[in-house]
Amino acid sequence: MAVIIDGKKVATSLLENLKLKVQQSEKKPGLAVILANNDASSKIYVSNKEKQSLALGFKSSVYIFDKSTTQGQLIKLIHELNENEQINGILVQLPLFDHLDANQIIELINPKKDVDGFHPINVGKLNCGLKPYATCCTPKGIIKLLKAYNIELEGKNAVVIGRSNIVGKPTATLLTNENATVTLAHSKTKDLKSITKNADIIISATGSPKLIKADMVKKGAVVVDVGIVRQFDKSLVGDVDFEKVKKIASYITPVPGGVGPMTIACLMENTWELFLEQNKNNAKF
Ligand code: GUN
Predict the structure, then answer these.
(1) Alpha carbon of 183 to ligand 1 centroid (Å)
(2) What is the number of the ligand 1 atom nearest to the C-alpha of 42?
(3) Which residue is closest in CA terms to ligand 1's atom 2?
(4) Nearest to 31 by CA among 75, 68, 62
């Protein structure tokens, strides 16, 4: 039976450390979050980000836009936030309304304030093995979680399923930088089972409930579930058939309580790190 990886516990400990540092700092970090869509989950994520920021003593500004919002309005706000010294991190919750161009907005964020690590400069740094100003929150959280449980990555066969810019691709890059041998699988991959069966580490980020079945997992593999879908009965399910796979895996993350809490904790840590970087010549620390 697998060890159940407790993401809530690891995230809480990270947040407690961070809170102490914030308390000791005279100046406080500022995080701006922009929401421009009507998606119910996005609204919950943004509200949780705001609550967590305030709980740590950060300054939090949330900007909510309705469907009539223009690209020009968002561009203007990004320029203002880039110039605002009180704001250290800027997060544009994705997706945006269909008529808005997320890529253009992300490119306009000052890379030093790009708390999600989505700006091409930060993605490029990550790909070059350089330190980005911020590393994408979910991938960073996954690596931290694996390290918290002393799970060896070097030389391991890892498969990442899902090739999004938010999770799949940067997770594959981080694992490569940790010297894992990485396969990036996706919706067009043929015979996924033949790939997962050989994997020491499976990271699934597709949003397809119970895609990963017990017969797709090698005995003793580490299984990380990034999927989270709310069912009709309001329960949350991940990409992994948890009850069956936990009998085969050595370590497994639950949904909820696995990767999710790490994402928000890493967002807070990124905000703090950007704040430090932006204030590093300021004597008030
Ligand atoms: N939408 C889903 N996940 C994320 C995330 O980590 N950051 C942003 N900005 N939007 C998201």
Answers:
(1) 23
(2) 1
(3) 94
(4) 62
Q: For residues 180 and 157, is the Cβ–Cβ distance under 8 A?
A: yes
Place of tokens 């796979």: 245
Residue 285 has pLDDT above 90, yes or no: no
Per the prediction, the chain carries an average pLDDT of 97
The question of whether 131 is a catalytic residue gets the answer no
Q: Token digits for 68?
A: 């009539």
242/223 Cα distance (integer angstroms): 9
Check if 169 is active-site.
Answer: no
In the chain the domains, ranked by start, together with CATH numbers, are 28-113 (3.40.50.10860), 137-261 (3.40.50.720)
> How far is the centre of ligand 1, averaged over its atoms, from the C-alpha of 220 (Å)?
31
What is the pLDDT at residue 282?
65
End-to-end CA distance of the chain: 48
The answer, yes or no, to whether residue 112 has pLDDT greater than 80, is yes
In SS3 terms, 206-225 reads as CCCCCCECHHHCCCCCEEEE
Active-site residue, selected from the candidate residues 49, 113, 140, 156: 49
200 is catalytic: no
Q: Whose CA is nearest to atom 1 of ligand 1?
A: 94
d(CA 166, ligand 1 centre) in Å: 7
Question: Burial level of 219, CB count in 10 A (0-12/13-18/19+)?
Answer: exposed
User: pTM value?
Assistant: 0.97
- Atom 8 in ligand 1: residue holding the nearest Cα: 93
